[in-house]
Amino acid sequence: MRKTWKKAMSVTLAGAMALSLAACGGGSSSNDGGETKKAEGGSAATTESGKPTITFMTTSFYGTDLKNEHSDEVIKRYEDYTNTHVEWQWEANDTYKEKLGLTLMDKDNMPMVLTASGDLTANVVDAARKGAFWDLTPYLQDAEAYPNLSQANPNVLKALTVDGKIIGIYRARAIGRFGFSYRTDWAEAVGITKDPETIEEVYDMMYKFTYEDPDGNGKDDTYGLEMTKYTGPLDIIQTWFGCGNEWVEQDGKLVPVHQTEEFMEALKWMRKIYEDGLIRKDWATVDSGTFQDSCKKGESGCFIDVMDSGKRIWTYFNTNDVKSVVDPSKNASMTLVGPINGKTLATSGFNGYYMITKAGAKTEEDVKNCLHFLDKMCDDEMLILADYGLEGVTYDLNEAGNIVKRNALEPQQSPSSGLNQCLCYIPKLESTSPALEKDEPNLAQAAAYAKNEQYAVFNPALGYLANSEVNAEVGTDIEQIIDDARTQYICGQIDDAGFEAAAKQWLERGGDRLVEEINKLYQEDTTK
Q: Is 217 exposed, middle or buried (0-12, 13-18, 19+ CB in 10 A)?
């Protein structure tokens, strides 16, 4: 899980100079659909056919962006549909952050649309405060002009707000991605007939998966839950107890969750499942890249992380013909529950965002042209084009009218390669008419996402952390203090007094200043 406290620091001048020779070559490509007329007198540039022209800097993952066979047809389709000509500036993913840093320093020479990855960073916030980007707040309220973008989630937009101004449009990701999953056949084997809804029912399932031989092999070789040194599962469990998501609002103030009674209640529960042997003793050494393996191998039966990981375990069972322990005529499966106790952790709701620069988009007409393009690219026709390519080339429609992807081409060979790097995915993450044909695990994942969103707990401090100078200074370091103490407490290496000492150290290292600044920003926020 990407923690909101972990903010990248701005690129140093020395680093920028060292990278400048490599970066200046850029990855510029206009993919011209017609010669562009230069703007005169501050007016917007257009092609000979009258299409407005926008310039767009974004990430290249393969170096084949809109350069493959049939890419010309893709370009023609999106330009005709959006009535926009795009001059692309593709920049390699490996060096994109450095290139973004250089671009922000060259304030008089920016593209109209500038892509950023991850969350707001200190250098983006600094550029915003110096007036580098348009305030998009009034535009995103115009549902007639921008029927898709106007449906952006206000909770997500808070994380892209600087001094009360929305300076970016996010690339949406599932808000309800986190939750609880379990192995369906194991539950049946130990007599559990309904999905767990409460913390007590989760404990009961984990206990039975550990001590009641759910795989039926007569050996004491299973345990309830796999855990990992990656902190995501612990963050999810905490929300079940009502302590919030990193920060929580209490009595009109924002409070770090580790200062709440609910947090300590959650921590003691996690310590109990450790002491009772429901998780393995060396859980804190398990790498996040391999922690699905115990479920895949039949060593554990519960999984807490993203719903798509639960789906991938299920897919593994199907791909590797792992049989159900109660009905060998069927493969094993996972049940994707999602929330427990009516709560689960919300993601930030985005990964990356688009800013419209004042240096590139010099007029309001330019801004509207950029927003028009971004909005139209969220229509089903363009989601299909960008994500699935061309019918008869990279996908077909089955008898039910659903999209079935062909597997003949690798992603970098697709005619639409790179086009999805301009998609906001607002208000939906994929096309619905027609929709992608999905198997049972993928259908379950989609249903879990939709259900989770109703119960997902947001971090109320997201936007303020992005604007916090103290957070940029000390956030990552003091966060590690709490993460380490949490692990030590669960494993019995420290007691309540030991955790209190760590919480005191958090305050002394800058946490007290962080709480003060976050609450100052919170009180000054008239939009909350």
A: exposed
Would you put residue 466 in left (φ > 0), alpha (ψ -120 to 50) or beta?
A: alpha
Q: Which two tokens stand for residue 516?
A: 């003060």
Joined together, the tokens standing for residue 116 give 């950023």
**Amino acid identity, position 90:** W
* pLDDT, position 45: 73
Q: What is the pLDDT of residues 344-398, one digit of tens each?
A: 999 999 999 999 999 999 999 999 999 999 999 999 999 999 999 999 999 999 9
Buried b or exposed e, range 79-113, using 16+ CB within 10 angstroms: beebebbbbbbbbbeeebbbbbbbbbeeeeebbbb
Residue type at 156 in one-letter notation:
V
Residue pLDDT, tens place only, 267-285: 999 999 999 999 999 999 9
* Whole-angstrom distance, CA of residue 412 vs CA of residue 420: 12
Q: Give the separation between CA 173 and CA 351, rounded to whole angstroms.
A: 6
Residue 17 has pLDDT above 70, yes or no: no
- Residue 343 three-state SS: strand
How big is the chain, counted in residues?
528
Work out the pLDDT band at 119, boundaries 50, 70, 90: confident
For residues 519 and 53, give the distance between their C-alpha atoms in angstroms, rounded to a whole number: 43
Nearest one of 263, 231, 230 to 244, comparing CA atoms: 263
What token pair was written down for 450? Answer: 């939709």
Of 4, 28, 20, 167, residue with least CA distance to 98: 20
SS3 content of the chain, % helix, strand, coil (to 5): 45, 15, 40
- The DSSP H or E segment spanning 480 is helix 469-490
